[in-house]
Amino acid sequence: MVGIQNPAAPRRATSPDPPRAGSLERTTMTPTPLIWITEQIHPDAVEMLRARAEIILPGEDATPHHDRITGIVVRAAPIDADLIARLPALRVVGKHGVGTDNIDQPALSARDIALHTAAGANAESVADLALTLALMLARAPDIASDALKRGTPRPNVDMTGYELSELPCGILGMGVIGRAVARRLAGFGAQVSGYDPMLPDAEWPDSVARRASVDAVLEDTRMLFLHLPLTPDTRHMLDLTRLRQMPQGSFLVNCARGGIVDEAALAQALNEGHLAGAATDVFEREPPAPDLPLLHAPRIIGLTHLGAQTHAALRRTGTLIATKVLTELGV
């Protein structure tokens, strides 16, 4: 997209003739909101914002306009207290996704700045990826494919895998994504248990046995799915002690947040052979350093936060958060 040509004049919404209410021609009556889009979002969401506000697009320099920015749409960029302090007109932050660990919420609350998320919009895509990773761990098609490409169609490892119905599955976090994973597992005939102290009994899936604690899930789970938010309570929840609570030869799938798992502990559990494999779409530092020990542990599948990266999820997430931000700004 074309960048801002004049730093003193951010990208303006186009308006028909006669001008609509809230357009730049009517700023003496109703100031037009200025929304900063920090990272790429779906084009339909950009057009929704452009139609009713001025916008600063990803890659454009927002610094000259800090005094006028009234809204932010953010994905993973840090929105910290220092930045918030430089935005005196800020009224709303819209998180393109669910996790808000990149946003200083106390700093927003101190100025009564609204924070909205797109909870649930990417659930189906993240759940699809979680099941994909679970099947890769259970059947190892990537190992067979790599061997075939090297000219050794029969890898020098035992390729006997598992059906998901053979592996007791556990889900930590039964929010929208966790429940979407549970629906998919039911289709595979899997035995599933879960833990989430916040979900009311009325919303708990019939196909999932409710456990009273994290430890109760771990002790009989061979395929563990993580779908928790990253909070002080969940940071490094899966340490070496807890990983060793899982049965020998278990698998772990993390499509939540990197900090929930102690990466050094996970590498050790894989190197020791206690875990048979792990797949993670998230890391404590993204992207991870190439020399991160976890990346060199046996049977680790690492991705680059692709869970919500589908056409449908990006459109749903983008248009939902655009709607929430515009509504908060009253346009």
TrEMBL record:
Gene3D superfamilies: NAD(P)-binding Rossmann-like Domain (3.40.50.720). Keywords: Oxidoreductase. One of its GO terms (cellular component) is cytosol. Residues 1-29 are annotated as: Disordered. Residues 132-307 form the D-isomer specific 2-hydroxyacid dehydrogenase NAD-binding domain. Residues 37-326 form the D-isomer specific 2-hydroxyacid dehydrogenase catalytic domain. One of its GO terms (molecular function) is hydroxypyruvate reductase [NAD(P)H] activity. InterPro entries: D-isomer_2-hydroxyacid_DH, D-isomer_2_OHA_DH_cat_dom, D-isomer_DH_CS, D-isomer_DH_NAD-bd, NAD(P)-bd_dom_sf. It comes from the Bacteria. Belongs to the D-isomer specific 2-hydroxyacid dehydrogenase family. PANTHER family: 2-HYDROXYACID DEHYDROGENASE-RELATED, HYPOTHETICAL D-ISOMER SPECIFIC 2-HYDROXYACID DEHYDROGENASE (EUROFUNG). This is D-3-phosphoglycerate dehydrogenase.
